[in-house]
Amino acid sequence: MLDAGKPAFAPKKGKSCVVMFVGLQGSGKTTTCMKFAHYHQKIGFKPALVCADTFRAGAFDQLKQNATKIMVPFYGSYMESDPVKIVVEGVERFRKENCDLIIVDTSGRHKQEAALFEEMRQVRSNETRPGNICDGW
Length: 137
Ligand SMILES: Nc1nc2c(ncn2[C@@H]2O[C@H](COP(=O)(O)OP(=O)(O)O)[C@@H](O)[C@H]2O)c(=O)[nH]1
Ligand SMILES: [Mg+2]
Hints:
Layout: E1 17-21, H1 29-42, E2 47-52, H2 59-70, E3 74-75, H3 83-96, E4 101-106, H4 114-125
Parallel strand pairs: 1-4, 2-3, 2-4
The protein binds guanosine-5'-diphosphate and magnesium ion.
Magnesium ion binds near residues 29, 30, 53, 59 and 105.
């Protein structure tokens, strides 16, 4: 998405596109997810937000409050600790609702941890399948 050597990534209206935000804790993922959702909503997309941060306390509340403010539908759980499960359920739900930009907010860590990379790989591999036409993953 941010590779200057490639054409700029752009989701396509009416197609089911999933974008996953990955980064260290506090790097601005959740805030940027909101800006990304809000911007695309204003130009005619139907965005949705999935909270796959089950690591940091308050992460779902943060997403929920901000998503409510910009009036974008969201999915998450206070009980479920497996981010993969939440993403599979959330993406499935929003695909059914014809959302064309499904934004997945993931958890961060204080430094690059092997466990975090593994979690991101699992979240990603569960959602890269036919029907996901964007290669923004
Ligand atoms: N100044 C500034 N602060 C930001 C920006 N984006 C996020 N923040 C702040 O950085 C902190 C962490 O942001 P958050 O989106 O929760 O990061 P996350 O842990 O990666 O999801 C919060 O206090 C945000 O308000 C930005 O573009 N500029
Ligand atoms: Mg966050």
